[in-house]
Amino acid sequence: MHTLSRCRHLPKLNREQLQSAITYFESQMSRMDYAANVKASLPIGSGVTEAACKTLIKQRFCCSGMRWKEKGLKTVLSLRELVQTEGLWAQFWKKIDQYGAMATM
Question: For residues 12, 13, 18 and 22, what is the CA-based torsion angle, rounded to 10 degrees?
Answer without folding.
Answer: 90
